[in-house]
Amino acid sequence: MSLNWQEDTAYLELVEDLIYTDDVQSLKKYTQHHYSNRLEHSIQVSYKSYKLAKKWGGNVRATARAGLLHDLFFYDWREQKMGEGTHAYVHPRIALKNAKKLTDISPLEEDIIIKHMFGATIAPPKYKESYIVTLVDKYCACEEVIKPLFKKVKLKAVEYSKVVHL
Questions:
Q1: Domain 5-164 is classified in which CATH homologous superfamily?
Q2: Which pLDDT tens digit goes with each residue over 93-120?
Q3: Concatenated DSSP letters for the chain?
């Protein structure tokens, strides 16, 4: 049986000082991948990354915490440009700056946050935990877009089928 993040006390112990802060909770105001908000996305990245780090012998604390904070920026990147460079380059640096206001950030957590856009940026991660969050971030982004689109397509197919059979 798979627990969800709210029932996983070991996970919650690692992030409870962060997850209910006003800054982290305010992420629910921002759309992330069209069908999700940034808080939902950040929690999913954090929790799925935590489970993989646990399975693969990684630093679960750093992975869970940095996964939660990897997109800690407070603007809609589709509407507002922040700083020089692409959003893929700029937002991890803004997230790190904001994360450092909330808590002490280890070098591992810093690498996770800064490098989570690897693939869209050049500098590769230094640690396996950074690769975990990077890959889970991409997986969650795809899942957040594809699942709702698939539901819409399926619903339209059912509606079409009803019309055709009338």
A1: Hypothetical protein af1432 (1.10.3210.10)
A2: 999 999 999 999 999 999 999 999 998 8
A3: -PPPGGG-HHHHHHHHHHHTSHHHHGGGGSBSSSSSBHHHHHHHHHHHHHHHHHHTT--HHHHHHHHHHTT---S-TTT---SSS-HHHHHHHHHHHHHHHHS---HHHHHHHHHTTBTTBSSPPSSHHHHHHHHHHHHHHHHHHHHHHHHHHHHHHHHHHHHHT-
